[in-house]
Design goal:
single chain; alpha+beta; nine-stranded antiparallel sheet; 3 helices; 16% helix; 47% strand; globular
């Protein structure tokens, strides 16, 4: 009992708004294909869309949410939030878009705000699309 209590006191709780990196297995859990969008921090992909599917991983587990193309386009263009994995997701562009025609892709600085109930957290990173 004391060991359990001691471990609980030194192990930081993961906030309910946190996103965990997606794994290769996570990214392969959809049959969708087409253009892909991601939000990354350094080498960690925290949010990924392909076709109509949006994927993320929270401390509670993996979430795959399906949206129509207009909803996803409005989200990736930072015009409207989406709700997935028990969180409201809002994207905001923070930098200029850099196009890479040789790979049919583009990237830009972005923030992703996650809201779970009354708790919000904003993550800084990079967003990008590839077709």
């Amino acid at each position: 009992m004391l060991l359990t209590l001691a471990l609980h006191l030194i192990t930081p709780a993961t906030p309910a708004t946190d996103l965990l990196p997606l794994t290769e297995a996570d990214l392969n859990r959809t049959q969708e294909s087409g253009c892909a969008f991601s939000f990354d921090q350094v080498t960690k992909t925290l949010l990924y869309t392909i076709g109509r599917d949006l994927m993320l991983r929270t401390p509670q587990g993996f979430a795959l949410c399906r949206f129509d193309q207009a909803q996803l386009d409005a989200f990736t263009d930072a015009k409207r939030p989406l709700f997935c994995g028990g969180r409201t997701l809002r994207l905001r562009r923070t930098g200029a878009t850099h196009g890479f025609p040789e790979s049919d892709s583009a990237g830009w600085g972005a923030t992703l705000t996650l809201t779970n109930g009354k708790t919000s957290k904003t993550l800084r990173g990079n967003a990008g699309v590839a077709c």
